[in-house]
Specification:
The longest helix has 20 residues. By secondary structure, the protein is α+β, with helices and mostly antiparallel strands. It has a 7-stranded antiparallel β-sheet. 30% of the residues are buried.
């Protein structure tokens, strides 16, 4: 089983952070080129990365302003059957967002890309909430040639 876990502190409201995980504008503001979602348990998510791929997810759990869990139901390689758990905690001066990405069928080596790339995307999410401007694909930080 492969797993990566990251946390970022965000200067914003917990409602703002939660909306980045439950709205089309949210996902497209920090991660994908575009998003089409149905934010309810069992609801579908299509994240399009222009000229690259579309990843499909399903909402597994949603607790408003606390957590969002999604499962990749259509993706290539280590994406397929990956589980993403986003947990939100309001502190006195920031919102902590913790991401845990797991896949039972993947190896740690297969997750090396995710281990680095999630840092880039979580900082994009932070910037999107704090400044209104993230770095979604294809304007994301590249970590290797062809990324």
């Amino acid at each position: 089983m492969a797993k990566v876990k990251h946390q970022v502190g965000i200067d914003g409201t917990i409602e703002q952070v939660f909306s980045t995980l439950t709205t089309n504008e949210g996902f497209a503001g920090w991660w994908a080129s575009s998003a089409t979602i149905s934010p309810e348990i069992g609801g579908k998510i299509a994240l399009t990365f222009d000229n690259l791929t579309t990843l499909y997810f399903e909402y597994q759990d949603i607790l408003e302003n606390e957590k969002v869990a999604i499962l990749c139901t259509g993706g290539t390689g280590a994406w397929q059957d990956s589980e993403l758990l986003f947990e939100l905690v309001q502190a006195s001066d920031q919102v902590y967002l913790t991401l845990t990405h797991t896949n039972e069928a993947s190896s740690e080596d297969e997750f090396l890309y995710f281990s680095t790339k999630w840092t880039c995307y979580l900082l994009s999410l932070r910037d999107f909430v704090e400044t209104g401007r993230g770095r979604p694909y294809p304007n994301d930080i590249k970590i290797h040639v062809g990324d």
